[in-house]
Design a protein that fits this description.
Layout (H helix, E strand, L loop, with lengths): L1 H19 L12 E3 L4 E6 L16 E5 L1 H6 L5 E4 L3 E3 L9 E2 L1 E7 L3 E5 L2 E14 L10 E10 L8 E2 L4 E15 L21 E15 L13 E13 L21 E12 L7 E10 L5 E3 L10 E2 L7 E10 L6 E11 L9 E11 L3 H4 L1 E3 L1
Antiparallel strand pairs: 1-22, 2-3, 3-11, 4-7, 4-21, 5-6, 5-21, 7-9, 8-9, 9-10, 10-12, 12-13, 13-14, 14-15, 15-16, 16-19, 17-18, 19-20, 20-21
Amino acid sequence: MGTRKSCLFYIVLFFASAAWAGSEPDSCISHKLYHSMYRVYEVRKKVPAEGECPTQPGGDTIELEVSPPSMIESGFEPNYITFGGWLNLPGSDYHGLWHPLIFESRVTPNFEAVYGSVMVDIVPGFLVRMRAEYSHPVFTPSFMPGLRIYTWNRKKVRRLNLEKTFQDFSYWGFSINHHSNGETGEFYNADGSVDTVHGSFGTNYIIGEYHNWSQLKLPLPFLGNGRTFFEANDLSLSLEVHLPNPPGKRWFHDPVLDGQFGPIRPHFKAVIYERSPFNPSTYAKTWFNFSYAFPRKYHIAPEPALGVEGKPARFWQDHFTVDFEETLFLSWVDPLGLYFGIHAGPDYYNIWYRNYVQMIRFGIAVDPGNKFWVAGMK
């Protein structure tokens, strides 16, 4: 019930902010097209007839054609910083309604190179939480660097026109990734509890993925002028595999993770863009992920030397993960957006993965795809 109310609140917020963003200019003098797309193949302008206004976004007097790398970027996860901690929903392993933090931030900068139909992306990403405790400590950040490679069939790629009603575009990806907390201590304390301050967490994994990007403009006749709401979506299926260690070695992950950290994880992801029908420069981005971790045998693995008894994995809490993230971008504060996120599943913060959490986060975000999507009137 809490999730439904939060989603309803955000939908109302989206439409209200769209109205605040302003209406279309009422004179030709104030019409000025701008965009932050940095890979534009071509812009063709038609000469307006006498008495008509110059080219405007969403009209039929301009044609924008963009490249596949820009479409791929539009599906990247947003960078965010939250306001304080998060709200705990019923069922979380963390106690109390409010989990106190100073902030939580995910930073995933992209260093890209494109050659032909291949795009290489180096991501030195990390996730950090600053706690609302004495001296405001930052314990064991999540270091998540990765090397991602994307490719597409150039012969099947049509020049992508933003004004078309429907188009699609498929591409494939492969990545090599790392996730650790930068610590070298033993995973367990002497009393059998997990050392969340100095305990070592580390794993290396690969991801293979298939994406279908499509643009489907759904008309809203009651708004007039052929305005639309849903602009595009990126649907993907991927397989995440945490690599096994050779016998007696610890090349790819900490051995203590065996049996209690699911090494095989299929994902279904959906990224949906919704542009405000009231102002073309105001839009929202919905990012959804559903995954399943297996084979995970234990919630707590047995450690006889420490007196730790094994506990079997819980069906829902230890296997399933659901993420929903929504970012609302307003033309007058571009490129920042209002961020709202829901997470249900194991905690995504390195060694804290053994805790099941249902959380709601609030903050601000910057979308890597805004180089493609931001277009408006100024």
